[in-house]
Amino acid sequence: MILSRIGLGLLTLLVVSIVIFVLTQILPGDTATSVLGQNATPETLAAFRHELGLDRPAALRYLAWLGGVLHGDFGVALTNKQDIVEVLGPRFRNTLFLAGYAALMALPLAVGFGILAAIREGRLTDRLANIVALLAISMPEFFVGYLLILNLSVNHEWFPSLATVGTDTPFGERVWAVTLPAVTLTFLVTAHMLRMTRNSVLSTMSTAYVEMAFLKGLSRARVVTRHALPNAASPVISVIALNLAYLVVGVVVVENVFTYPGVGQYMIDAVSKRDVPVIEACGIVFAGVFITLNTFADVMAIVLNPRLRHPR
Amino acid sequence: MTIFGHKAPLTAVVGLAIILLNLLVALAGPYLAPYGETQVVGGGWDPASAAAWFGTDQIGRDMFTRLVYGARMTIGIAFVTTILSFAIGITLGLVAAVAGRWVDALISRAVDVVLSIPLLIWALMILNVLGQSLFSLVFTIGCLDSTRVFRLARALGLNLVSLDFVEVARMRGEGLWWVISREILPNAAAPLMSEFGLRFCFNFLFIAALSFLGLGVPLPYADWGGMVKDNVGGISFGLPAALYPAAAIALLTVGINLVVDWFLSIDARPSGAQAEM
């Protein structure tokens, strides 16, 4: 079961890579004409195509590209001829750092308050948590981000407004600089996780054995933590993994708000400059992270729930 | 207060009021706005005054006027996108549910591939190919979002297909389109309605985010996401100009979510939030 799920994940990634390649390389038409312009002679066009390897069949070009990607070679950027991996590597680490930082804050908050809301269902704590979560879900990332910048770094100079970090920034300073973007992300992701944690605990609460526990006269807090929670754990864990995946996307906008040197900002930059190899590389990296996290979520669900291990 | 025969909590009433206000502004736009859409009325980032209620933007256009015109553009685009997404999603979803295993497997696997990575990443790659225009924006987001609608419509369709009245219609010899449009669609309408609110919110935020990134609604139209991007420079001088359009976006989505939340709590039929999981 677990192996077949991982296999499915790899297959998905392969198909996605084909779609990405077709989308960015085949559909836009002839790269040579768009680079050299309409006035280029047929000879220069042919020479240029040969130089870029564009005169080979699409399937071969795909295999060559895929082989490069698997060896960690994404080619060079069109605009400044930089090696993409050299730029992408540190940026990828930055993005993971930001997402990890946000996850560290979001996880305890979301699971804690989610369980608390489930224990006190329908009471003030629950309703308050619900309203706050609803507000947080509705707000665009940039609104929260700029609100924080205006209040915490412009009006009171407590945090830097631009999260500019280099490769040699010391760890303490890095944490300091990334705090505001991480808080922004936390705010958004926590809301989703909180609501789903609460709902999955509550849906376990409506089962017969939980009713039995209540009838035995146990307190609500004890029923939730000892009886309901162990069975609610596996949906909660997959919810968490799904939201970590969501975190990776939320990063795109947040990185742009704080001009943080991560993969998201790199990709937006590349799209505005129409730098195809870079767009492709960033797309594949995002796809890889997202599919890995999703696969991980499903594997965890299988591990935690014996019923899923034995197909009917 | 009761609406449609149900007692509405305070939050839902507030939500409805916000939605109505936004619709009013979007529809009556040009009559409400004191100045022209691109008319320059003062210096860059003038503070709020009696003549310009929210001050002016980065090149001296009236912020209130821009917000009013922006409402029309931003809400209109998101609405058209959602309609397109539903048209594609419902058609494919119900066809997949009714037409048989092979068609279903084919469409479902294609949708799985699209949903296996974030829609924002797809959108960035597709917009790179199509270039920046209103049409390509609506088309891209509409197609991408239809995958989510497809999942819900297919799930609803599969539940309905096994019911007796559909069986009867098939035995009568009715064709695929009759079964879909006369037997299935009317019965799937209610859950699809509350899904519409959720998807509208999603598309609205999605387009705002793209505009903010400079890849959404092209110039010179006023739209809220783009206005945030244009006025961001003022933030570091402590000027809140960029926050007004951002707050307008947040306000409308909060309003819709409040109402949808209430809808979902009155009928516990399969909702978008559950079908998406």
Write the topology of this structure.
The complex is a heterodimer of chains A (312) and B (277).
Chain A: H1 2-26, H2 31-36, H3 42-52, H4 58-70, H5 84-119, H6 124-138, H7 141-155, H8 171-205, H9 208-215, H10 220-257, H11 263-273, H12 276-304, H13 306-309
Helix pairs in contact in A: 1-12, 5-6, 5-8, 5-10, 6-8, 7-8, 7-10, 8-10, 9-10, 10-11, 10-12, 11-12
Chain B: E1 2-3, E2 6-7, H1 10-32, H2 63-99, H3 101-115, H4 119-130, H5 134-161, H6 164-171, H7 176-212, H8 224-231, H9 243-266, H10 272-275
Antiparallel strand pairs in B: 1-2
Helix pairs in contact in B: 1-2, 1-9, 2-3, 2-5, 2-7, 3-5, 4-5, 5-7, 7-8, 7-9, 8-9
Short structural summary:
The complex is a heterodimer of chains A (312) and B (277). With 312 residues, chain A is mostly helical. Chain A has helices at 2-26, 31-36, 42-52, 58-70, 84-119, 124-138, 141-155, 171-205, 208-215, 220-257, 263-273, 276-304, 306-309.
Overview of the structural elements:
Chain B: It is a multi-pass membrane protein. Chain B: Residues 71-260 form the ABC transmembrane type-1 domain. Chain A has 13 helices and no strands. By secondary structure, chain A is mainly α. In chain A, helix 9 crosses helix 10 and helix 10 (220-257) runs antiparallel to helix 12. The two termini of chain A are 12 Å apart. The model of chain A has no long low-confidence stretch (mean pLDDT 79). With 277 residues, chain B is mainly α. Chain B is built from ten helices and two strands, in the order E-E-H-H-H-H-H-H-H-H-H-H. Chain B has a two-stranded antiparallel sheet. In chain B, strand 1 and strand 2 (6-7) form a beta hairpin. Classes of the chains: A mainly alpha (312), B mainly alpha (277). At the A-B interface, helix 1, helix 6, helix 7, helix 10 and helix 11 of A face helix 4, helix 7 and helix 9 of B.
